Amino acid sequence: MMKERLTEISRIKKNTKLLMTYNVEKYINKNDTDRWIEYWKDKADLLEVWTPHNWVTGRKYRKVQKRKQKTCGRPWKTPLQIQADGTVNMCCFDFNGQLLLGDLKNQSLKEIFNSNMIKKIRRCHTTGDFKGSGLICANCDIRNINKNGVMLYNSKFDINERVKEVSTTYSNIEIKN
Predict the structure, then answer these.
(1) Residue 1 exposure: Cα atoms within 13 Å on the Cβ side
(2) pLDDT tens column, 84-98
(3) How far from each other are the two terminal CA atoms of the chain, in whole angstroms?
């Protein structure tokens, strides 16, 4: 049912871009990847195939190499994560709302962007010091991983450049020929 709905959207879209991401799990869907790319390549504006991120408090999909970086960059150039109830989170990996920045029902964006939580997150990401912060960022694989091999396919951008940017900064990447 979902495939049919997305196919219909790909036919009627005008001002909306259809960006699709496929996560390859080693033993579950690895053989389906080529079929997925073949089906969607002429329907979507951008296709990406990734190995899944390690969830900060859950599954471990990627081998984490102890290569700490200060930041993933998300506190400055990520899309807002607005939940159905109006709450705003820092990160799409924050499935439990631990990085809650504010609530659009009773706060303006300016208030949210000046919140104590976003200041704390940015301070930790600037210094690289998460000790005692209680932030889920401290164990996030995006900060702690060598990004080689995490993206398996991209229909428009060079993989090595794409993994350095978040989805809202595609304009910083040259389109491959």
Answers:
(1) 0
(2) 788 888 887 676 778
(3) 34
